[in-house]
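Forum > Structural Biology > Help requests

Title: Can anyone predict the 3D structure of DJ-1 family protein?

Hi all, first post here. I have the sequence for DJ-1 family protein but no way to get a structure on my laptop. I'd be grateful if someone could post the structure tokens.
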Amino acid sequence: MSVLVLVAPGSEEIETVAIVDTLVRARIEVLLASCCPAGLRQIRASRGVQLVADCHIDELTGRDFEAIVVPGGLPGSEVIRDTPLAIDLLKEQAALGRWRAAICAAPVVVLQHHGLLDGAIVTCHPGFQPQLPASLLSRERVVTDEAHRLITSQGPGSAIEFALELVRVLRGDEVATAVAGPMVLP
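Reply #1:
Sure, ran it for you. Structure tokens for DJ-1 family protein below:
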């Protein structure tokens, strides 16, 4: 099994690359799938960086993922929100009790928009926090809701912590610590 990371024109590049890189360091197979409406694998991220996905979401041959991760950024989160296959995959992942993760704008723009928070305690970029019900909002940098198999985080500055938390839930504390060490984190 592998981890599916969704990307779209306008996705946040620091978040996208930090997620993919950290998971690869943990020897987790990562599939970066473009949700570009034009069917392209290459996308221009939110700050103009060009990223090339492994495949377009329409080319996926399987649906069996340990986790599905949604980076933030605008308009990237909106493009993913408006990609029916991406939402179908996220809904199926939740129904199967498998991990989902979203950072920055994505918890609100993608997951909440489609009713995919399911009462989980979450965080998101501070600019989107007023859109979450106070009863579900945490102001922590990274939040793991084990019961809902959902990890959320605030933004580019918390992207490595977010990705390491994903490593921890998928591969355990020892692997997460081993990956974090050479990254010279505080």
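The mean pLDDT is 97. The chain is about 30% helix and 20% strand.
Shout if anything looks off.
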